[in-house]
Amino acid sequence: MLPVGRLDRAEARSELGGLEVDDFSFLDTETTGLAGGTGTQVFTAAIARPHPNGIELTQLFLAEPGDEPAFLAALDQELCRAPGLATYNGLAFDLPLLRTRWLMARMPGALTEGRHLDLLHLARSLLRPRLESCTLRAVEQRLLGFEREEDIPGHLIPQAYFDYLRSGWSSTLEPTLEHNRQDVLSLQHLLHRLLHRLRGADPAMEACDWHALGRHLLRRGRRSAAWRALRVAADLGDLDAVFLLARRKAVVLEWRLRQPAAAMRVVEAAIERVGFEPDLEKRRLRLRGRLDRARSPDRRRAKDRSQSLPFADEPGERLDHLRDQPVDRFEGAGSAPDLGHEDLGDGKDPGRKRDVIAPEAVR
Questions:
Q1: How far apart are alpha carbons 240 and 218 in whole angstroms?
Q2: Is there a contact between 211 and 228 (Cβ–Cβ < 8 Å)?
Q3: Structure pTM?
Q4: pLDDT tens, 138-174?
Q5: CA dist., res. 249 & res. 240, Å (int)
Q6: How far is Cα 67 from Cα 162, in angstroms, rounded to an integer?
Q7: Nearest Cα residue to 134 out of 126, 95, 358
Q8: What residue spans of the chain are helical by DSSP H?
Q9: What is the mean pLDDT of residues 85-99?
Q10: Any residues with CB less than 8 A from the CB of 127 and at least 6 apart, and which?
C-alpha cells in the first residue's frame, strides 16, 4: 500500500465510458522483447488500483518460464477486481501480447480485460502540439513534473531478465522491477491530469493546449464544448483557431441564416488577422460575387428579357403558315393504306415486318 501523495483527483468524464475514476486498475508489463509475437514473454506485470488509504500496488514476477500458466492465472485474478483497465500503449502492445501468451499456455477461456482505456491515444490527442514525443518518460517530465533517478534504459530490460535466468541473479533486475512499478504509478497521475485538461481546469493550459482540446472534442462529437475551447484558443492568440472559427461562422451565416453580408464581414476580419489563407480568400471572392448579384437585380432581369422566345407572342401566328397548304399534303392522296402488314418490328430486327390478321366483322 502506497500513500496517495500529491495526486490531484479529477471527476469522471464521458471518455471513461460511464465508469468512475476509481473503477480503473492500471497495468504495465515488462517483456523479453519489443517485437511481440510468440517468441516474446511477459516476465513481470504491475497492477495498481485506487484504495481508500492510498494506492494498492501488486507486482507479479515470472521466476521460471515454465511457471507461465500460474503467472497468467494470477494476473487474470488481479484484473477481475476492477471493471476498467488503463494502460499506456496497451491496445497495440501489452494486451495483444498477453492474449497470445494466454493461448500459447493453453489457458481456458479468455483473459479478463474489462473496459480498456489507452492513455497513449488520449495523451497524443491533447499533448501533441506541446510534446515532440509522447513516450511515458517525456510525458512524466513535461506534464507531470516527475523526474526519475537512476532509471534503467528500456533497451536493457530484456537483458536483465536473461541474465537472471542464466545465473539466478542480475544486478539490473531490481532496477527493472522498480521501473515497472514507477510506470504504473505514473499512469494514475496521468489519468487525473488528462481529465483535468478535458474539463479545461488545468491552470497550465496555453493557447495550443486549448486548440488541441477543441480538435479532440470535435472528433468525439462534442461540438458545443469544442467551439468553446477553440474560442478560448483564439482569444489567447492561436491563429489556427481563429481560422477554424471564422470558417465555421461564415458557413452558418451564409447557408443556415442566409446572411451573406455578415459572413463577408467575418471572413474579411479573419483574413485581416490571420493573413492570406486560400480557403478564406476563395470564400471571400464567392461571397463578393453573391452580394454583387443581389445588389443589381434589374441588370439580371434585363438580360433575361433580351433573350428571344422560342415561339411568337400571339398563339394564332404559329399556324398561319399552314393555312394555305393543300390538304393532300397531309393525307394519303387517295390511296388506301395497306392494312395487311404493320411495321411492328421485334427485339432482334427492329425493321422486320410481321403479319397482322385483321379480325373479321361480327355479324
A1: 15
A2: no
A3: 0.74
A4: 999 999 988 888 899 999 999 999 999 999 999 999 9
A5: 14
A6: 16
A7: 126
A8: 68-79, 95-104, 119-127, 136-139, 157-167, 173-198, 207-219, 223-235, 239-251, 260-274, 278-295, 297-305
A9: 95
A10: 134, 139, 142, 143, 212
Phi, psi values for residue 56, rounded to 5°: -95, 120
pLDDT of residue 4: 53
Contacts of residue 59, defined as CB under 8 A and 6 or more positions apart, other chains included, come to 44, 45, 46, 47, 177, 180, 181
Helix, strand and coil percent figures for the chain, each rounded to 5:
55, 10, 35
Q: How far apart are CA 192 and CA 109, in angstroms?
A: 33
CA atoms within 13 A on the CB side of 107: 22
Q: Which amino acid is residue 238, in one-letter code?
A: D
Residues with Cβ within 8 Å of 141's Cβ and at least 6 positions away in sequence, in order, are 147
Q: 89's torsion region: left (phi>0), alpha (psi -120 to 50) or beta?
A: left
Q: Which of the four pLDDT bands, split at 50, 70 and 90, describes residue 19?
A: confident
How much is the pLDDT for 9? 75
CA atoms of 71 and 188, how far apart (whole Å): 24
Is the predicted pLDDT of residue 309 greater than 90, yes or no?
no
- Residue 343, judged by CB atoms within 10 A of its CB (0-12, 13-18, 19+), counts as exposed
d(CA 133, CA 288): 45
Residues 22 and 86: their CA atoms lie apart, in Å, by: 11
**pLDDT at 344 exceeding the cut of 60:** no
Residues 216-247: pLDDT tens digits?
999 988 999 999 999 999 999 999 999 999 99
Residue with cell 390478321: 357
